[in-house]
């Protein structure tokens, strides 16, 4: 076995590989840019080597610099993680030439599967079901229209070298095919330096389901079940689960066997993923093969007990798989939520800055286990597990230079319903402050009826949140549970206040039993009957809820039970109550005596300031360009300026017709959120 492995990556995946290497007794070498000098993966590794400036194209993806680090460290193998150089055949060749093992598949497999046209032809030859389409080179827009008619609308126009949704268009008629061909061709040339385009049938009611394969260099191959990845935004996965709630055993077996056949057809050896699109009738079609470890691999590990990183390392060391297909058992259910540094209330724009608070839920081990590749029992009913793969820490910076992922939060339970409930509690328990993040959105998805039923497609987010995410309005039953908990919490805070030293004589303060809890525009009249173990809260409709938990004034997380069911609240202090965040909702909760509540209803409502004549910066960023001048009349939809954040350019446009009266920022200026860029009349 290798003595030392270099991880050619950063962030959570680098930390993930280090954990397994440490378990195997292998020393690890981290590489880092200037921006990652104090990063978690650098701290965790046995040694670390600096490789350049923050931009990835000057550090992490410069093969020569990584090879210098490999040579300097004396590492015998390199794990590339995902992204960066993980599917770069030239990097794999450079390692081979240097006599260093690449913890990944052979160069030939990377090259064949890296080209969408070539991979589809190989898949067809291997007997893998593929989407009807035209895989030859398409000369021009007229040719694209002709082929689209032959395939049958709707069609998907895709870049051969595409990825991340770039170079991809859907066409429903001749005009859209003509326009989509040219747009895809231009986008592909600009993004990948390769403008080759192909056309295939667009599958309706599509679900994105992928098969995890594992092969060695001795001709053995198995599949480890599937992952459902249909919850996507702009072709980027947000929520994944294993197994899929849609597949039956026969379809799973057919997909798995075809995935292994494809892997063997290209001489694959390592962990890899074959992605399929599946329609409403369970017809499945090959999309592509990812010749690396997937971001969402933890859910497969949780339901199989197989450490995929360990298996990759063993295969790279020339070892045979010790498992057969009959050894693979899928136990329970696992769900992964990707926590991103992006603001869901602002169109998911990236958010950068310092993590002033980062407290993930405690990790809990449970579920199936493999010890020396042998099953060690099963999971008992009611048992749940929590896993958090991360590469950040409290006080650390979310950089503008890299992917905005903060963590991958996973839960496992014997059933899908239990796994979802465990995820709800875990999301509510996850404390992140200092930056915008998508925790509220993820919580909303976990409660969405379509997700809970398992009847989602890849269009879920576009269909269910067409205007973007605007927060959550909680149902009345959830509000009553929060009202009961906050009333009990307020009583604890009131008792604390009565015990403050330095009070005037003969001014003893009594804590009443009757309160009015106001939130989300509703009043809840409650009476509290407290005892040493908790409180019974009675509503004016006769409903009584029992509240127990461990919360003290000043705590930012309240872990409660209401009628025996868990309720976790993020707690902030506001005048006369609390700021409560739970289940994707952000609530101002006021707890008042009946007389104070009566007077509060007479108070005038404070209106938010009018910003309709201001252009505000939607995220921290750099002004790349200002497109207008003072005194200029602008029309609705006209470009006003361009802001760059996390290497993404965002064009800000006029919402209505107006005249620019003042410009407060210029090219090169660094702006904070809501900073005024320009004013109008």
Give the tags.
single chain, 681 residues, alpha+beta, eight-stranded antiparallel β-sheet, eight-stranded antiparallel β-barrel, 41 strands
Topology overview:
Elements: E1 4-7, H1 11-23, E2 27-33, H2 40-44, E3 47-52, H3 63-73, E4 77-79, H4 89-97, E5 101-102, H5 107-114, H6 116-125, E6 133-134, H7 141-151, E7 155-159, E8 168-171, H8 174-192, E9 197-201, E10 207-215, E11 221-233, E12 236-242, H9 249-265, E13 270-278, E14 284-290, H10 297-304, H11 308-316, E15 333-340, E16 342-343, E17 349-350, E18 353-354, E19 357-359, E20 370-371, E21 374-375, E22 385-390, E23 397-398, E24 405-413, H12 416-429, E25 431-433, H13 439-447, H14 449-453, H15 460-464, H16 476-498, E26 514-519, E27 522-531, E28 534-539, E29 544-550, E30 557-562, E31 565-574, E32 577-582, E33 585-592, H17 594-600, E34 614-616, E35 621-626, E36 633-634, E37 639-645, E38 648-653, E39 658-663, E40 670-671, E41 676-680
Parallel strand pairs: 1-2, 1-4, 2-3, 4-5
Antiparallel strand pairs: 6-9, 7-8, 7-9, 10-11, 10-13, 11-12, 12-15, 13-14, 15-24, 16-17, 18-23, 19-25, 20-21, 22-24, 26-27, 26-33, 27-28, 28-29, 29-30, 30-31, 31-32, 32-33, 34-41, 35-37, 35-40, 36-39, 37-38, 39-41
Overview of the structural elements:
The structure is a single chain. With 681 residues, the protein is of the alpha+beta class. 27% of the residues lie in helices and 32% in strands. It has 17 helices and 41 strands. The strands form 10 sheets. The chain has an 8-stranded antiparallel β-sheet with strand order 14-13-10-11-12-15-24-22, sandwiched between helices. The protein has an 8-stranded antiparallel beta barrel with strand order 26-27-28-29-30-31-32-33, surrounded by 4 helices. Strand 29 (544-550) and strand 30 (557-562) form a beta hairpin. Helix 7 (141-151) packs across helix 8 (174-192). The longest helix is centred in the C-terminal third of the chain and has 23 residues, at 476-498. It is globular and about 85 Å long. Mean pLDDT is 91; it is low at 369-381.
């Amino acid at each position: 076995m290798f003595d030392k492995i270099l991880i050619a990556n950063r962030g959570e995946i680098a930390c993930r590989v280090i954990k397994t290497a440490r378990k195997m007794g292998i020393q690890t070498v981290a590489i880092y840019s200037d921006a990652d000098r104090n990063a978690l993966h650098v701290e965790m590794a046995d040694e670390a080597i600096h490789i350049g400036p923050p931009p990835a194209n000057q550090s992490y993806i410069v093969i020569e610099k990584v090879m210098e680090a490999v040579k300097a460290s004396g590492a015998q193998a390199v794990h590339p993680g995902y992204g960066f150089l993980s599917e770069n055949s030239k990097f794999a060749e450079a390692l081979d030439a240097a006599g260093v093992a690449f913890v990944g598949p052979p160069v030939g497999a990377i090259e064949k599967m890296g080209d969408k046209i070539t991979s589809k032809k190989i898949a067809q030859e291997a007997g893998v079901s593929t989407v009807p389409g035209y895989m030859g080179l398409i000369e021009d827009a007229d040719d694209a229209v002709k082929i689209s008619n032959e395939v049958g609308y709707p069609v998907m126009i895709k870049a051969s070298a595409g990825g991340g949704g770039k170079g991809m268009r859907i066409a429903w008629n001749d005009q859209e095919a003509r326009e989509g061909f040219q747009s895809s061709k231009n986008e592909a040339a600009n993004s990948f330096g390769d403008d080759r385009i192909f056309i295939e049938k667009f599958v309706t009611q599509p679900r994105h389901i992928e098969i995890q394969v594992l092969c060695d260099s001795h001709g053995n191959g198995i599949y480890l079940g599937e992952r459902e990845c249909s919850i996507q935004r702009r072709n980027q996965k947000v929520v994944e689960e294993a197994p899929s709630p849609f597949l039956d055993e026969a379809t799973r077996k057919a997909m798995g066997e075809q995935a292994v056949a494809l892997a063997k057809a290209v001489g694959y050896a390592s962990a890899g993923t074959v992605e399929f699109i599946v329609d409403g009738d369970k017809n499945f079609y090959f999309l592509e093969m990812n010749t690396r470890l997937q971001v969402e691999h933890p859910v497969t590990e949780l339901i199989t007990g197989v450490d995929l990183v360990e298996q990759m390392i063993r295969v790279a060391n020339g070892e045979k798989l010790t498992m057969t297909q009959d050894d693979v058992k899928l136990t329970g259910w696992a769900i992964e939520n990707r926590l991103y540094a992006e603001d869901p209330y602002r169109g998911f724009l990236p958010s950068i800055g310092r993590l002033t608070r980062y407290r993930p839920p405690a990790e809990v081990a449970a579920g199936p286990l493999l010890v020396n590749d042998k099953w060690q029992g099963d999971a008992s009913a009611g048992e749940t597990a929590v896993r958090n793969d991360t590469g950040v820490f409290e006080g650390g910076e979310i950089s503008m230079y890299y992917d905005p992922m903060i963590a991958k939060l996973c839960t496992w339970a014997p059933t899908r319903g239990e796994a979802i409930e465990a995820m709800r509690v875990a999301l509510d328990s996850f404390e992140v402050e200092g930056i915008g993040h998508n925790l509220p959105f993820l919580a909303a998805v976990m409660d969405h009826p379509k997700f809970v039923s398992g009847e989602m497609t890849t269009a879920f987010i576009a269909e269910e949140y067409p205007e973007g995410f605007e927060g959550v309005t909680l149902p009345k039953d959830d509000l009553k549970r929060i009202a009961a908990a906050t009333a009990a919490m307020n009583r604890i805070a009131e008792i604390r206040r009565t015990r403050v030293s330095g009070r005037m004589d003969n001014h003893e303060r009594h804590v009443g039993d009757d309160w009015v809890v106001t939130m989300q525009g509703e009043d809840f009249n409650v009476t509290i009957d407290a005892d040493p173990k908790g409180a019974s809260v009675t509503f004016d409709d006769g409903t009584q809820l029992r509240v127990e938990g461990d919360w003290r004034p000043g705590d930012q997380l309240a872990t409660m039970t209401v009628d025996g069911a868990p309720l976790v609240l993020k707690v902030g202090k506001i005048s006369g109550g609390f700021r409560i965040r739970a289940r994707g909702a952000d609530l101002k909760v006021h707890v008042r005596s009946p007389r104070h509540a009566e007077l509060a209803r007479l108070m005038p409502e404070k209106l938010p300031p009018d910003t309709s004549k201001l252009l505000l910066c939607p995220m921290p960023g750099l002004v790349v360009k200002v497109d207008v001048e003072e005194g200029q009349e602008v029309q609705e939809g006209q470009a006003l300026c361009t802001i760059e954040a996390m290497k993404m350019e965002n064009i800000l446009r006029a919402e209505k017709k107006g005249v620019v009266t003042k410009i407060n920022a210029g090219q090169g200026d660094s702006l904070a959120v809501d900073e005024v860029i320009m004013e109008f009349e």
